[in-house]
Design a protein that fits this description.
Residues 281-290, 298-316 have a biased composition (Basic and acidic residues). The strands form two sheets. A two-stranded antiparallel sheet has the order 1-2. The chain is built from ten helices and four strands, in the order αββααααββααααα. Helix 9 packs antiparallel against helix 10 (393-420). It has helices at residues 2-10, 49-54, 59-136, 142-159, 198-202, 285-291, 303-335, 349-352, 363-390, 393-420, and strands spanning 34-36, 42-44, 237-239, 245-247. The termini are far apart. Among the domains are: 138-176 and 215-239, no CATH class; 249-336, no CATH class; 345-420. It is mostly helical and 421 residues long.
Length: 421
């Protein structure tokens, strides 16, 4: 039995052929008898129908394919169910959002109605209280109302840096009635005074840059109720003795010569402003008022007036310089003395301690010596300043020596003046 089986197994005719690879590729160790088509049907070249049927795809492969198809269909069903569930959830969320929106709308409407009712109650209560207070309050006089209105108007224009115009139907202090015809609901400018030259009136508004705490004169000054406004009370239109309209003195340029050593030559006739703070307090009001020097201020209304003021100031300066030159020339003529030549080393006390003669001890010698001493002290002070800036000890030392020399020279000068006397 075993030998027969072995013989059958050894005989190539009875040996079962090897399985071929898919695609009909034959094995190389046996003849090309059997192929596999790409479709899985195995056939022989000389094969019969039974063998072809028997060698089709085995049932296990068909079951596998059916199982794979079933899994694919199940997966598609699961995906569809998931999408349906997701759409359901989205619809539920939308429904919930819609309900929340409706609820918030209802709450908003309710709170709005409550707020309106509360505001209505507050308004009614305030109306009742104010009505009771109004009946209890005493009547405000017409003058008080006008003052308050003027003050508010001026304060608004002042804080917003705008010109203070006259209010409708109001006039400046001392202004004639004809200057303000009745204005029907409009705020007009005051009619200009025609007593000045046309050039100054037609010129552009004047702009000054001075250290005085006033506005420029192209701002209209308000006079009514000015006592309420503090600093704004200085913007008042006044009239000088000639009858011309002029701005207050605080808007004029200050006099350069008033309060100096020489003083202002023109006094009350000066067209510039003399500050009253420099006057003694015991003077009566009339003198103090006259010291203001109220001249005709019409020419100050435009740039022409400014030119005239500046020309007047330049003329006064030139006159003072000419007077000083004349006085110096007269003093030089009176002296007529020969000034002794100063020694080269002006800080040596041995040279300067000699007693000068009567001829050299005049006013000229004294003046020259004083000037020299002053120059020496100024030079020493300049060196000291430079030393303070640079911080150099050597410069400080030399400055001390020069200052000591100037001091010794000053003592010698005093001795010389004593001997000359």
């Amino acid at each position: 039995m075993g030998q027969q089986q072995r013989a059958v197994a050894a005989n190539p005719a009875f040996r079962a052929p090897k399985r071929q690879r898919i695609g009909g590729v034959p094995s190389y160790d046996e003849p090309r008898l059997r192929y596999e088509s790409p479709y899985g049907i195995r056939y022989r070249r000389e094969g019969d129908a039974e063998r072809l049927l028997a060698e089709r795809i085995p049932p296990s492969s068909r079951e596998e394919e059916a199982r794979i198809t079933q899994m694919r269909l199940q997966r598609e069903r699961d995906e569809l169910a998931y999408e349906v569930e997701k759409a359901k959830r989205r619809n539920e969320e939308l429904e919930r959002g819609k309900q929340d929106l409706e609820r918030s709308k209802r709450e908003l409407e309710r709170s709005k109605q409550e707020l309106e009712a509360e505001a209505r109650r507050d308004i009614e209560r305030a109306y009742r209280i104010n009505k009771r207070k109004l009946h209890e309050m005493e009547t405000i006089r017409k003058e008080d109302v006008e003052k308050i209105a003027t003050y508010a108007y001026k304060l608004f224009r002042q804080t917003h840096d705008r010109p203070i115009l006259p209010m409708p139907g109001r006039r400046f202090h001392g202004e004639p009635v004809e200057a303000f015809p009745p204005m029907h609901g409009t705020i007009g400018l005051p009619a200009p005074s025609l007593s000045g030259d046309a050039e100054a009136l037609l010129a552009p508004p004047r702009t000054r840059s001075s250290s005085q705490q006033t506005r420029t004169s192209d701002y209209y000054r308000a006079g009514d109720g000015a006592e309420l406004v503090g600093r704004m009370g200085s913007h008042v239109l006044t009239r000088d003795p000639s009858g011309d309209q002029c701005w207050d003195n605080r808007s004029r340029a200050a006099c350069k010569f008033f309060g100096t050593k020489r003083g202002c030559k023109k006094g009350d006739r000066c067209t510039f402003y003399h500050p009253p703070a420099r006057l003694p307090r015991h003077e009566p009001d009339a003198e103090r008022k006259s010291a203001y020097g109220q001249g005709s201020g019409v020419e100050e209304r435009g740039s022409g007036g400014v030119m005239k003021e500046e020309q007047a100031g330049v003329k006064e300066e030139q006159e003072i310089k000419e007077e000083m030159i004349k006085e110096e020339q007269e003093a030089n003529k009176e002296e007529q003395v020969v000034i002794k030549q100063e020694p080269e080393d002006e800080f040596d006390p041995s040279l300067n301690s000699t007693t000068p003669t009567r001829a050299n001890a005049g006013n000229g010698a004294t003046t020259q010596a004083l000037i020299t001493a002053a120059l020496a002290v100024a030079k020493a002070w300049q060196i000291l300043t430079r030393a303070a800036q640079d911080g150099a000890a050597a410069i400080i030392k030399s400055a001390g020596e020069e200052a000591f020399g100037a001091e010794v020279f000053g003592e010698a000068l005093v001795e010389a003046v004593k001997h000359a006397k």
